[in-house]
Amino acid sequence: MTAGLFDLPELRAREDTGLPERLARSLAETTAGWQLSTAQVGDWLAERALANRFLVERIPFDRLDQWAFVEDGARLAHRSGKFFTVEGLRVTVDQGPVLNWDQPIIKQPEVGILGLLLKEFDGVPHLLMQAKMEPGNPNLLQLSPTVQATRSNYTKVHRGSAVRYLEYFVDPTRGRVLADVLQSEQGSWFHQKINRNMIVEVDEDVPAGDDFRWLTLGQIGELLRRDNVVNMDARTVLACAPIGSDEVDALHSDTELLSWFTAERARREMRVELMPLTEVNGWRRGPWSIDHEAGRYFSVVAVSVAAGNREVTRWTQPLLEPHGLAVTAFLARRIGGVPHVLVHAKAEAGLRDTIELAPTVQYTPENYAHLTGADRPPYLDLVLAAGPESVRYEAVHSEEGGRFLNAEGRYLVVDVNEADVPLDPPPGFRWVTPGQLRFLARHPHYVNVQARTLLACLNTGAVGW
């Protein structure tokens, strides 16, 4: 008989019950990390901006290098066939003031990696953050994840240098995976784009390069209270962090919440069809941009970029440029002493599953200025009129700077009461706890990218209760 034939396999705990307590230690460290105090981060970012040459210049489409309108103008594409394309989209929905429309949209089918390395220093977990330049950021340089790379980037389609620290995420057996989930991005601007959001813990020594620093969760929470410091890609990964929760009760059980969400997906109808840019109604292409005929929503533009610390130091590319400052807010209240936020089961044309949980309000007011009465977006005017005494959190954060130019949103958490929003809100809205959102964000396609920004603020203590 072969020795060990009937040996039982070694079983493991289904979850690391000590992880929330360790992350709580990181959350508690808000003023000083292993490498930098929080007060020093601004100076370090300014130093990294001066250490490298950064330049972004608008150019006409005919000055794009490696990019061109192909198939008689049907798509704007890269010569390699990689990265992304700008195409047309036709949308038909079942409710709302506008039931059908055409628009340009970014199609990026490849799955990128957004990864944070975590390591303990003196018993306190720290995250390795990168000072990364993105051409669309209004201030160019912001804190990004350790790795922020599309498949085209890390497979070197651009023939540039290697992505630093990538090995820990393509081979996560080098550490311990704490979070790993596919998440969507902006459903109004991307067609079915997803990225792999990861947090990997390492024990080995990982030196921080010149553009990298180890910071605690508490420090990042403090930085999330500042405008345009922590970029969108870092925020979405932080939303997936396995933060502990002392919640026991909620207005709706998890099963009730999932059933409501499933019913919302089942009842909504949306038809989307990719189409040539030349057939998109209501949009005009000029030598410098593609614009909506009413001047609303966004434009597609082109830029030339120089960045001394990127894998490729010079390139050109298209960017989508929104018109106006977005307003993105959770309405919040305590119910039975437990914090709750109001989520919206929002349909967006570019989402794979049509609907994800969004903040209560997710709109650019200028796009709806012509609407009145019941056609106005729900709760938008309530948020716009909120006084400082009811605003629990507010900061301006920019969106993905690699695809969007000067795309900023005013992110808020606004306290309300029963007179503002009842316990039984209108169809499409539901009160949920932060813990329920954290649970859902550890699974794909439940919590949209704007809601994940606000969840990141909750996870890191930027929003206090």
UniProtKB/TrEMBL annotation:
Q: Where is the dTDP-4-dehydro-6-deoxy-alpha-D-glucopyranose 2,3-dehydratase domain?
A: 39-240, 255-458
Q: Which InterPro entries match?
A: EvaA-like, EvaA-like_sf
- A GO molecular-function descriptor: lyase activity
Q: Which residues are involved in binding dTDP-4-dehydro-6-deoxy-alpha-D-glucose 2?
A: S188, W283, K346, Q362, Y363, T364, N367, Y368
Binding-site residues for dTDP-4-dehydro-6-deoxy-alpha-D-glucose 1, renumbered to this chain: W67, T150, R151, S152, N153, Y154, D233, E400, G401, G402, R403
Key words, A-Z: Lyase
Q: What is its EC number?
A: 4.2.1.159
Where are the bilayer-spanning segments?
none
Name of the protein this chain belongs to: Oxidase EvaA
From which organism does this entry originate? Streptosporangium saharense
**Lineage, broadest ranks:** Bacteria, Bacillati, Actinomycetota, Actinomycetes, Streptosporangiales
